[in-house]
C-alpha cells in the first residue's frame, strides 16, 4: 500500500474495481483546510479519462508493472501487433489501448507496461515524437495570413495533421505524439 505522497505520472493503481494510469497530478495545499491531490486518471481497460481528488495521506493500491521495449510490426483492423525486442515474443493489442494509433509507423519502438500479476499488457507509451513523411497536402498560398497559418496534410500512416504553409508533399516532419501536432520539418 502506498499513499498520495507516492503519486507520480505513469503510476498504475487499482481504483473503483479497475486499473488506472495517472496522467496528471497536482498536490494542493490550500491556506485553510487539509491538503489534497488532484489527479487525472485513464482507465487501462476502456480508455476513459476521469478526474479524481484524493485527500492527503489517502492509501492507494499500486499495481506492480514491468516495462519492456516492443517493436510495432503491423495493424490488422483494430488489432495492432507488437514484438518484444529481447525475447521476440509477439503480442496483439486493441486500438483502444493505444494513445495515438494513427501515428504508429511500422518498425517504431514503444514501451509496453505489463502487469506482473497477470502478465497482461496494461498500456503503451509512444516515443515523445515521431518522424513521418507527408504524402498529400494542398500547395500553400501566400497572402492573407497574419500569423501561424496552417493547412491540413496527410502523413504516411494515414493521420491528418495541420502543418505550416511551407510544407510540401515528400517533406519529413516531426510530430508530437502526445498532442498529435506538428513540431518541425526534418
Automatic annotation (TrEMBL):
Example of a GO cellular component annotation carried by this entry: cytosol
Subcellular localization: Cytoplasm
Species of provenance: Flavobacterium silvisoli
Keywords: Cytoplasm, Elongation factor, Protein biosynthesis
Cross-referenced CDD domains: S1_EF-P_repeat_1, S1_EF-P_repeat_2
Superkingdom of source: Bacteria
Name by which UniProt lists this protein: Elongation factor P
Alphabetical list of InterPro entries matching this protein: Elong-fact-P_C, NA-bd_OB-fold, Rib_uL2_dom2, Transl_elong_fac_P/YeiP, Transl_elong_KOW-like, Transl_elong_P/YeiP_cen, Transl_elong_P/YeiP_CS, Transl_elongation_fac_P
Domain spans labelled Elongation factor P C-terminal: 130-185
Any one Gene Ontology molecular-function term assigned to this protein's record: translation elongation factor activity
